Every structure is written in C-alpha cells, then in structure tokens.
Structure to design on (460 residues):
C-alpha cells in the first residue's frame, strides 16, 4: 500500500530547511534527544529502539535496536581505555543509491539528533559520520548542523545540562566503495587500508580502535528522533509490514528508465509497480519493463513476469502466492522471500530494449575496479567475470565460456571475508539465469556489440 509521509522530509526544499531553526520549528528538533538524556536510562532507550522495528537502511536490514543491545552494558567514562563508539555509514557508494545524501543536505539535524540518542543508548561519547568523499555539500551541511547544535548546548560536555559528553565528527572517506563495508570503514577511520576484517570479533566487541562499536546506516540513525517522538510501537505500526518486524517509514529512491527519478518518503510496504508508476510517473517512452534492480547494484534483478511461490498459509508471502513479484510489498524479509534483497531500497528500472549483456559488463567493470583484492575468489573471480562479459560482447565467446561464468560466480559465493564478493556474484548470477537467451544470441553471432550501443544504459 502506497502511503506518503513526511516525517524525515518535511523540510526538504524549504529555504534554509537544513538549518536548526527549521528543524526545531517544523520537526520539534532535539526534543527527543533532550528527553532521552534527561529522563531515560540506557536500557529504556534501547528498548524503545527495539519497539520501533527499524531495520537497517543500508543493505543487510538487521534490526537497529537489536544491534544496539549487543554493546557492553557498562558505560565507560570519557577518556577510559575502552570507550564505546558510534560509527554512522554515509559512504553511499553503490550504483543506483542516492537517498542518504538527501538527508545530509536537506535534514542534517535529524542525523545529529539521532547520533545523540544512539550514543546515549549504546554508552558512547563520540560518533563518527563517515561520508563519501565526493559528497561535498553533504559534508558541509553536516558540519554546519554540528556547529549549530554545539552552539545551543546540544553537543559537548553537558548536552541539555546532562553530565554525559557527546561529540559528533564528520569523517571524509577516500573514494572506495569497499569502505561501505563496516569493518573496512573502521579500518579507514583508523587511517589504515580500507579492507574488511575477519569476524569474529564483531564490532560490538572490538570495533573502532579496538573498542566496542556500533555501526549504523545514516538513514537508520536519522529515523530515530521520529520513532522516539511517536513512540516505538506507534512508529512501527505505520508500516504495512510491521507484523513481521519491519516497521516505520523509509526513503525510497527510483532511478533509471523512469520519467521522474526521485527520492520519496513512504511508509514501509509499497510495491515495485507503485514506485514505478505512481511515484516515478512510469517508464521513459512508455516502454515495458525489462527488469528492476531492487536496492543498489548488488541485489539480484527481478522481472515482472516472475511470480511468488508461497503455497504455505503460514508464509508471510502467502497472500501474494501466484501473483507478480512486482505486487509484493517491499520489505527486508519479503524481498528475501522472492529471491532478491531490499538492500538500500533505491530501485533502478531497466526498460525493454536495453541489452542485459551490456548491463552485466557495465556492473562487472564497477565490481572489478572496486574490489580491495584481499580475497582471491573476489579479486580473481570479478576480473574473470568482466573478461568473459567483454569476450561475449565482442562475439568471441563459446557456450563453454558462458557456462563457465556460472561456475565463476558460484565459486565467489560464501568464500570471501565480506559480502562484497557476494554482491558481485549475486547480480551476475541473476542476470545470467534470467537472460540466458540474450547471452546465447551473442555466442551464436545473432547479436553484436554495436546493437547494444543503440540502447541507453539505465544509469547514464
């Protein structure tokens, strides 16, 4: 069900809407941070976060409140050997993803207030917001919001008069997509090479600087003041999927071959069809839909002809059994149930007439370039997938090469330190399986690279 809201986006587009005056006037800014620090215990803050059922907005969809509860219960004093840290992931380097930057540019104070509440809940005194280096306006707006909040006494040694120091710092990334992976980000913050760490230990035990750390996506944190203002349970009930633990509202991005690319705030649970036709105005040129990439380039593509198979009445997907996947509410668990991932919830629409083989080669270029090189399956497998993709487009591949791509991608799955390798292999496998005839047409010489260049790439 399409339900528009403006809890996070009310100040979007307003003159000086990113400033403290607008945030306090239009959104009741910092009232929830004040309430949390002055009237609630750490345990109560974490419990309220759990009730909100905010699933991580960055990709994996892990429940935010549950993640907060993993942190050690004792609150260390500032300056002790093992302080706690909050790290906020605003790297947003995945193709097709463009929502977090709107929050940083249009509502940065929600990010800062969310950091204050989260820091108190997890026992941290310092938060680092890790921002993709190219997002200069985002960094400037965040820095401005931090300065305004500090000047009002909302940050510092005694925020809201409470003897609980909180500081928020903006940390600029170095242009590497791999640093969107949480442990690579921690390495980068420490000044080390951006590559993933082995787990365990997990960040809640040994994160930034070897100390207990919670890593949350920026939109996840920005939703916290709204959830606390409404009350966790009421916020959760805004969602059409709150009964399966996916609550509240979130930002949805729509891009690619649509008439009105946008970022929109909706209650959790719209469908692909609603986003494409009701929000984004339909497909460019009124064409049909070849497929969609649900939530950033690392999520498997879905075709409108695919249907839901959920005959068990106990399955959360049973109400859509036999229907198109494009009619299923978009949620973390519903998308997993139909064989893909919600990811960052920024949908890339690819119109009929676009060459899926060229799309595959385009994606593999990106993943080959962005691999940190630490794991052999990812480093070599990604390069191999790119080489074979180019070989197919050049008309020099055989059916054996095509079959080999499946083996390469499957060999990456589950064999790397972090999820980057799987983020390479999953879209590759989905495109290969769902568009096999188009790949075979190149192998048989029925289609040439020049034909593919006549179409427009969805991310151009």
């Amino acid at each position: 069900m399409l339900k528009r809201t403006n809890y996070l986006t009310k100040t979007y587009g307003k003159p000086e809407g990113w400033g403290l005056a607008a945030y306090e006037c239009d959104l009741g800014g910092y009232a929830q941070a004040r309430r949390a620090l002055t009237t609630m215990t750490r345990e109560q803050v974490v419990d309220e976060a759990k009730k909100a059922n905010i699933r991580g907005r960055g990709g994996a969809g892990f429940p935010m409140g549950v993640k907060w509860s993993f942190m050690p219960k004792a609150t260390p004093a500032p300056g002790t050997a093992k302080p706690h840290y909050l790290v906020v992931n605003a790297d947003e380097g995945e193709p097709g993803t463009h929502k977090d930057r709107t929050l940083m540019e249009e509502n940065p104070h929600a990010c800062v207030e969310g950091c204050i509440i989260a820091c108190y809940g997890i026992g941290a005194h310092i938060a680092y917001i890790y921002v993709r280096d190219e997002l200069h306006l985002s960094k400037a707006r965040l820095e401005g919001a931090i300065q305004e909040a500090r000047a009002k006494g909302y940050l510092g040694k005694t925020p809201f008069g409470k003897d609980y120091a909180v500081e928020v710092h903006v940390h600029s990334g170095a242009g590497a997509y791999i640093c969107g992976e949480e442990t690579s980000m921690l390495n980068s913050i420490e000044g080390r090479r951006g590559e993933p760490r082995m787990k365990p230990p997990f960040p809640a035990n040994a994160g930034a600087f070897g100390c207990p750390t919670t890593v949350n996506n920026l939109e996840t944190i920005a939703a916290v003041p709204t959830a606390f203002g409404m009350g966790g349970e009421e916020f959760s009930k805004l969602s059409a999927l709150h009964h399966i633990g996916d609550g509240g509202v979130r930002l949805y991005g729509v891009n690619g071959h649509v008439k009105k690319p946008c970022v929109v705030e909706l209650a959790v649970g719209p469908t692909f069809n609603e986003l494409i036709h009701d929000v984004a105005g339909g497909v460019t040129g009124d064409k049909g839909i070849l497929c969609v990439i649900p939530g950033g380039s690392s999520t498997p593509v879905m075709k409108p002809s695919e249907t839901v198979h959920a005959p068990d009445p106990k399955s959360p997907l049973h109400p859509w059994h036999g229907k198109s996947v494009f009619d299923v509410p978009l949620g973390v668990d519903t998308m997993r149930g139909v064989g893909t991932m919600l990811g960052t919830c920024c949908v890339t629409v690819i119109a009929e007439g676009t060459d899926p083989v060229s799309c595959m080669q385009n994606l593999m270029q990106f993943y080959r370039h962005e691999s940190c090189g630490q794991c052999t399956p990812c480093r070599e497998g990604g390069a191999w997938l790119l080489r074979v993709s180019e070989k197919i487009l050049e008309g020099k591949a055989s059916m054996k090469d095509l079959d080999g791509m499946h083996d390469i991608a499957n060999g990456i799955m589950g064999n790397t330190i972090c999820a980057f390798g799987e983020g390479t292999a999953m879209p590759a496998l989905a495109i290969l399986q769902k568009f096999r005839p188009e790949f075979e047409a190149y192998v048989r010489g029925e289609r040439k690279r020049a034909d593919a260049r006549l179409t427009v790439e969805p991310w151009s």
Q: What stands out?
A: The mean pLDDT is 94. DSSP finds 19 helices and eight strands in the chain. Residues 20-237 form a domain with the Rossmann fold fold (CATH 3.40.50.11540).
